[in-house]
Amino acid sequence: MSTWVKRLARLLRHRWFDETDTRRALGPQALARIEQRIAASERLHGGEIRVCVEAGLPLSYLWRGASARERAVAMFGKLRVWDTEANNGVLIYLLLAEHQIEIVADRGIARHVPPGHWQAIVAGMRSEFRAGRFEPGLLQAIEAVEALMLQHCPPAEGQSNPNELPDKPFVG
User: What is the distance between the alpha carbons of residues 11 and 164, in angstroms, rounded to a whole number?
Assistant: First the structure.
């Protein structure tokens, strides 16, 4: 298949997916439960967790052949996950059109966690998602990130973690 045909197929796939697909994967109640789970998690440790779900990439990303990883890193910045006091934010990014999952961790937590741990979390999510279980997959991922945060980013003695970022998943 020629490069031009592959690019066109990718463009059509991303334009085909929209908010309806996102809502089908994660409805309002599921998003609310994920938000509650993130809030509960963040009260236990010194980190911040964000979830971002996008149906497809913006046209500008498609034209230049950007990857899901590039978009995840961009959303890490756009959602200000990098902007935490201890640089310990983690973004869990889903791109539905390509069935891609990315985890982007800020340097405060990334220096403690080998890349293989993040990939293991992604593998667990992928297994759940293949079975159509998006909410359980995300909740398991949040629990896994929580365990890493508890180990490497405990709250300061006698203090709770201030909520620096919104807990509500970003859906685009």
Answer: 36
| H helix intervals, the chain | 3-16, 19-25, 28-42, 59-63, 68-78, 107-110, 115-130, 134-152
Query: Could you write out the DSSP letters of every residue in 80-113?
Result: TTT-STTS-EEEEEEEGGGTEEEEEE-HHHHTTS
d(CA 134, CA 148): 21
- Residue 16 burial (C-beta neighbours within 10 Å; 0-12, 13-18, 19+): exposed
- Euclidean distance between CA atoms 50 and 62, whole angstroms: 24
Q: Which residues make Cβ contacts (< 8 Å) with residue 23, sequence separation at least 6?
A: none
Nearest in space to 169 (alpha carbons), one of 81, 71, 87, 110: 81
3-state secondary structure of 155: coil
pLDDT tens, per residue, the chain with 172 residues:
678 777 777 767 767 777 777 888 899 999 999 999 999 999 999 999 999 999 999 989 988 999 999 999 999 999 999 999 999 999 999 999 999 999 999 999 999 999 999 999 999 999 999 999 999 999 999 999 999 999 999 887 777 678 999 999 999 8
Among all chains, which residue has been given the structure tokens 């950007």? 66
pTM: 0.93
